[in-house]
Write a structure and sequence with these properties.
It contains 11 helices and 15 strands. It is an alpha/beta fold. The strands form 3 sheets. The chain has a 7-stranded mixed β-sheet with strand order 3-4-2-1-5-6-7, sandwiched between helices. It has a 6-stranded mixed β-sheet with strand order 11-8-12-15-14-13. The structure holds NADP nicotinamide-adenine-dinucleotide phosphate.
């Protein structure tokens, strides 16, 4: 591979795709192409100080073998159709849909938590799944606490911004009058749980490699443009004081502890790369319980940034093998 990889961003006109292009430009990548559906083929999207012309993401285009790395942020059905074609043509594929996240044999990766798993994909089809935008910050916080004192049980309540539901929903919120703002649960029901709540549990268990970890979630959409927040109650195997939990999290990668009287907010997290964590305190309702609150940018660490970090691990892995 040349020193600069040839990169394709698929879903380049979407909420995640536009942030992906901005981050790639910031990081100095310049061999980048933008792909989306036939609806926006031929339109232009910003790329640093330039623009890219959007190409249609046909199987023929993605299977041509002239791209080293594809970053997919399209829906699950489009990913199921396009990712195998790109992979068969030899490209590394990082997919942000649900298509591969829980499928056996596909790594589901948060680099700070289980980055080594990404490299396993180089032995097979080079496809790595990027987790859900609430799972990523949650595991960034749970992993260091688990290493310190063993995580036994987790309860979480989310406050998720509309950008998590895509560019059209951002546009709808921008045009909604404040009197119409509401809190909603706009996911698909799987019995008495939403699919978002089920994903948060299953993905967290897979990433932490704790298949039986009890995790109960209530996911809520709030009228905020960017930034997801989570109230988290963690029961630990061993006692850990709030001060020691805070110290553990201060040392954790990609985590920034917000000291009282401050607290994490979506506005403070938006545009930032780190997961903001605060309100770290004893959970009076549990033995060895710690309660905390986090906010993170769902389009950056929750999606585009995490995927680019996965891709960079894979590109390093390929270079190391060459
Ligand atoms: N938003 C988040 O915070 C977040 C976080 C993690 C993961 N994700 C996942 O990332 C994916 C995209 O989310 P988003 O929020 O960016 O959605 P979005 O704003 O609705 O954008 C969807 C993008 O996919 C493209 N697309 C749709 N169908 C396609 C097809 N058949 N072929 C090629 N391109 C197609 C769209 O192109 P057109 O302009 O041509 O329609 C658009 O660029 C979803 O799977 C989502 O679950 C999102």
């Amino acid at each position: 591979m040349d020193s600069q990889p040839r990169i394709g961003v698929v879903g380049a006109t979407g909420a995640v795709g536009t942030v992906t292009l901005a981050l790639l430009a910031e990081r100095g990548y310049d061999r980048v192409r933008a792909f989306a559906s036939s609806r926006s083929a031929g339109s232009r999207v910003p790329f640093g100080l330039d623009e890219l012309v959007v190409e249609e993401a046909t199987p023929a285009a993605l299977g041509a073998g002239d791209v080293d790395l594809f970053l997919f942020s399209v829906g699950t059905s489009a990913s199921r159709e396009l990712v195998p074609v790109a992979s068969a043509a030899g490209a590394i594929c990082v997919d942000k849909s649900s298509a591969y996240r829980l499928a056996d044999g596909y790594p589901l990766v948060v680099p700070e938590v289980n980055g080594r798993r990404a490299l396993e994909s180089l032995e097979r089809d080079r496809i790595v799944a990027n987790p859900n935008c609430c799972t990523i910050p949650l595991t960034c916080v749970l992993k260091p606490l688990h290493d310190e004192a063993g995580v036994r049980r987790v309860r979480v309540s989310t406050y998720q911004s509309v950008s998590g539901a895509g560019a059209q929903r951002m546009d709808a919120l921008a045009h909604e009058i404040p009197a119409d703002h509401d809190l909603v649960m706009d996911w698909t029901w799987e019995g008495d749980e939403s699919d978002e709540e089920a994903k948060l549990r299953a993905e967290t268990c897979k990433i932490l490699e704790l298949p039986d970890l009890p995790l109960s979630a209530t996911c809520v959409r709030v009228p905020v443009m960017v930034g997801h927040s989570e109230a988290v109650w963690v029961e630990l195997e061993r006692p850990l004081s709030p001060d020691d939990a805070a110290e553990t999290l201060r040392e954790a990668p990609s985590v920034r502890v917000i000291e009282l009287p401050g607290f994490p907010t979506p506005a403070a997290a938006a545009g930032e790369d780190e997961v903001l964590v605060g309100r770290i305190r004893r959970d009076a309702a549990a033995e060895n319980g710690i309660a905390l609150y986090l906010s993170s940018d769902n389009l950056r660490k929750g999606a585009a940034l995490n995927a680019i970090q996965i891709a960079e691990l894979l590109l390093e892995g390929v270079a190391a093998r060459a």
